[in-house]
Inverse folding.
């Protein structure tokens, strides 16, 4: 084995790439290790969201917008909507990151004035009103529940705990902003924002989880945990 062959032997396992031997022999040039083209594209695809992921995020942003229009007015100004059902459904189907992105897309559309919020409303004022806390905490809620579904097999009980924690965070942020904006006491805020919604919240969470897990098993591109 000559010196060049020894260099090539040492280089090949390190770079794991294509080497032009003819150029090195005939022109006595340095051996250049180049990454195969397919490896480059594979690396890019794994580091970015795919077109399918973007479509799923857009689809569930639309689902949230549609479900938000199912709204029942309540006496103290906080309507009962199907938004939390849609948020939980998106989290269960898409997982943590993608569902949070879908929720952010929905909120951004609402913030710029697209009538996707409850009662076909929109505008930045909705985020600083009495119900603004519920809106701005939706991505956090989706991310927490998504984490639970992703780790439900590794950690027993992670999924139901994540659903409860995500819902509680949504209520806590909603109550805090309600107290600030409406200049009310915590007890009044809890009576307006939490107590009337507990029974329906449980029903919506159970339905969203059952439906979401079934959808998750059937759509392509979602990790089956």
């Amino acid at each position: 084995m000559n010196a060049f062959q020894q260099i090539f032997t040492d280089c090949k396992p390190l770079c794991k790439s294509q080497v032009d031997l003819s150029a090195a022999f005939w022109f006595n040039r340095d051996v250049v290790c180049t990454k195969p083209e397919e490896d480059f594209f594979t690396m890019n695809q794994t580091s970015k969201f795919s077109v399918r992921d973007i479509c799923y995020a857009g689809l569930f942003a639309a689902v949230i917008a549609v479900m938000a229009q199912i709204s029942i007015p309540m006496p103290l100004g906080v309507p009962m909507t199907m938004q939390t059902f849609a948020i939980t459904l998106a989290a269960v189907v898409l997982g943590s990151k993608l569902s949070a992105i879908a929720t952010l897309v929905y909120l951004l559309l609402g913030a710029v004035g697209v009538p996707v919020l409850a009662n076909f409303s929109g505008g930045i004022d909705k985020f600083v009103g009495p119900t603004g806390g519920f809106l701005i905490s939706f991505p956090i809620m989706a991310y927490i529940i998504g984490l639970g579904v992703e780790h439900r097999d590794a950690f027993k009980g992670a999924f139901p705990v994540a659903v409860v924690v995500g819902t509680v965070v949504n209520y806590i942020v909603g109550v805090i902003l309600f107290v600030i904006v409406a200049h009310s006491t915590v007890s009044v805020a809890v009576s307006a924002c939490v107590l009337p919604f507990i029974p329906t919240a449980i029903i919506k969470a159970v339905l969203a989880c059952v439906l979401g897990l079934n959808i998750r098993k059937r759509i392509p591109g979602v990790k089956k945990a």
